[in-house]
Amino acid sequence: MNRKMLGGLALTLGVAMVLGGCSSQRKNGKTNQKVLRIGVSSYDQYDTFVSELISCFQNYAKEKEKEWEITISLDIRYAQRSQMVQNSQMDDFIDDQVDIACINLVDRTDASGIIEKARKSQTPVIFFNRELVEEDLDRWDELYYVGADAYESGRLQGKILVEECRKNFNKIDKNKDGVLQYVMLEGEAGHNDSLARSMAVIEEITESGYMVEKLADEIANWNRDQAATKMQTFLDTYGEEIEVILANNDDMALGAVDVLTEAGLKPGDTDWPVILGIDGTSVGLEVVKKGEFLGTVLNDGEGQAYAMLELAYALVTENELPEKYQLKDGKYIRLPYREITAEDL
Questions:
Q1: Rounded to the nearest 5°, which phi and psi values hold at 329?
Q2: Would you state the pLDDT for residue 32?
Q3: CA-to-CA distance for 7 and 316, rounded, in angstroms?
Q4: What distance in Å separates the CA atoms of residue 332 and residue 273, rounded to the nearest whole number?
Q5: Superfamily of segment(s) 9-148+301-335
Q6: What whole-number distance in Å separates Cα of residue 245 and Cα of residue 305?
Q7: Which residue of 116, 175, 263, 298 is 20 to 30 Å from 254, comparing CA positions?
Q8: At 19, is the secondary structure helix, strand, or coil?
């Protein structure tokens, strides 16, 4: 039912009959949904992983229109890394009477504006990919999260390196000091995924018995160009000392590849360091195949897109979720990560 016309059942039905403004009718407590209106806001249009996820979401919506025998209307917007812009987009979604909003937060610590707007208008929200603070998710019953466990991705990134060290440690340890000298390219300051991935990867390596030395780490905001700028500084400062490059996502790892390639290095050269990404984007998988990355960690964007649409449909129509997408604690759908190396490809 249109969530903005709750002044009374008779008035709501009257407006729906005259204006056709409602996207559904309720019969015996269920929703006979004809149109599913979804507003989607992403923090940034240049994030490769999120862009691929949204593309999957669009494709899946086209498939499900036939199966569910409804029209799925998507209003997809990009917030240009501004929480104020995203808050304004939420206002637009509410004015446009969407049934549900899917929000990829700009600032995970500043979800209050979105939440208050959602609660006041009775518009459910599925947050995705960029996990908000747990206490914020508990502020209203109709707030949900679809994503993955960022800590797990860091552990798996470390596991790929550990497995390679067990086979080729002498090759990786170029200066033969028994220590892995590394640089790290991090996502955003204070971002949950950045913090968890950066901590977990080092924990996995050291708990597996290998010693590490951090030469440098820098924030590159998930961005390939920013990462290239940081990597150039790393290379100018440390040069051949760099044995391992750890990046919080594939785009930043690709920035490192750009700089190394520009410097005339090639995979297989003794000076080419081990490079690891996270996300398993299409371009990230290509460089794994070419040998420029040792590996990446697949973040199941396709699965998250499917889960997000299934959850949206179930919430609006009051149908059951498919078993594989059951909510944890009534709030969370988390999909597992997977290690990807050239052998897996």
A1: 55, 25
A2: 64
A3: 19
A4: 38
A5: Response regulator (3.40.50.2300)
A6: 30
A7: 175
A8: helix
> For residue 6, which amino acid is it?
L
For 141, 195, 298, 303, the CA distances from 149, given in Å and listed in that order, are: 22, 12, 12, 14
The reported pLDDT for the residue numbered 118 is 98
End-to-end CA distance of the chain: 46
| CATH superfamily assigned to domain 150-298 | Response regulator (3.40.50.2300)
- The alpha carbon of 212 is separated from its chain's Cα centroid by a whole number of angstroms, namely 28
CA atoms within 13 A on the CB side of 251: 17
CA distance 142 to 77: 22
Q: What is the DSSP string of 184-205?
A: EEE--TT-HHHHHHHHHHHHHH
Residue pair 245/182 in contact (Cβ under 8 Å)? The answer is yes
> What is the residue extent of each domain of the chain?
9-148+301-335, 150-298
Interatomic CA distance for residues 183 and 160, integer angstroms: 17
Sign of CA dihedral 290, 296, 297, 303: negative
Count CB atoms within 10 A of the CB of residue 34: 12
pLDDT at 191: 85
User: Is 221 within 8 Å of 188 (Cβ atoms)?
Assistant: yes
Asked if 294 contacts 164 with a C-beta cutoff of 8 angstroms, the reply is yes
DSSP string, 52-117: HHHHHHHHHHHHHHHHHTSEEEEEEEE-TT-HHHHHHHHHHHHHTT-SEEEE--S-TT--HHHHHH
**What's the average pLDDT block by block, 10 residues per block, for the chain (345 residues)?**
36 31 37 86 95 97 95 97 97 98 95 97 97 94 96 98 97 97 94 94 98 98 97 97 98 98 94 97 96 97 97 95 92 96 91
* Fold agreement between 9-148+301-335 and 150-298: yes
If one counts every other C-beta atom within 10 angstroms of the C-beta of residue 173, the result is 18
CB 121 within 8 A of CB 4: yes
